[in-house]
Each structure stands twice: as structure tokens, then as C-alpha cells.
Amino acid sequence: MQQAQPQPSPFIVTVIKEPAKEMSVPELIIGSLGIAGSLLLLALVCGAIAGVVLVVWNKFHPPADRHLPSVSPQIPVGRPPNTPVR
């Protein structure tokens, strides 16, 4: 037969919670303005980058190269769009 294992003596653990830091209204407003300002700055930087990319793209690929032919009966198909009609 097996002998019973002796039970270890129990010990008690006391969990001490640290008090949560409370935020005041001015701290909350300053924090939210900081987040909004960061997002605004990020949007401005992304917009500037997109603008530069579009300007450079249009410099090397003018939009006039991508026009569809005219469907107007007054403008013949082979004529440039800014020449006067006779």
C-alpha cells in the first residue's frame, strides 16, 4: 500500500492593489488635443506627399495624352480640341 503524502501547510497571499491615477478634466482635454493634433499633422504630411507625387506624375505624364476622342458632331475626330471651327 501507498503511504499518504503529507499535506503542505497552506499559506495566505494578500494582494495589494495600487490606487489608479485619476485624470482631471484639463489633463483629459490636453490629451485629446494632443491626439487630434497628431492626427492632423499626420494628415497634412500624407496630403503633402500625395500632392508632390501627383505633381511629379503629371509632369512626366501630361493629362492631355489620356483624353478620349471627341463625340461632338461639331469637332472632327482628328482635330485638336482648341483649334477654331471653320
Describe this entry's structure for a reader.
By secondary structure, the protein is mainly α. 42% of the residues lie in helices and 0% in strands. The mean pLDDT is 81. It has 1 helix and no strands.
Major sheet: size, sense and barrel closure? none
Would you tell me the overall average pLDDT?
A: 81
Supply the number of helical segments: 1
Estimate percent helicity: 40-55%
Q: Please state roughly what percent of the residues sit in beta strands, choosing from under 5%, 5-15%, 15-25%, 25-35%, 35-45% or over 45%.
A: under 5%
Q: Which residue ranges are poorly predicted, with pLDDT under 50 across at least 5 consecutive positions?
A: none
Structural class: mainly alpha
Element order: H for helix, E for strand: H
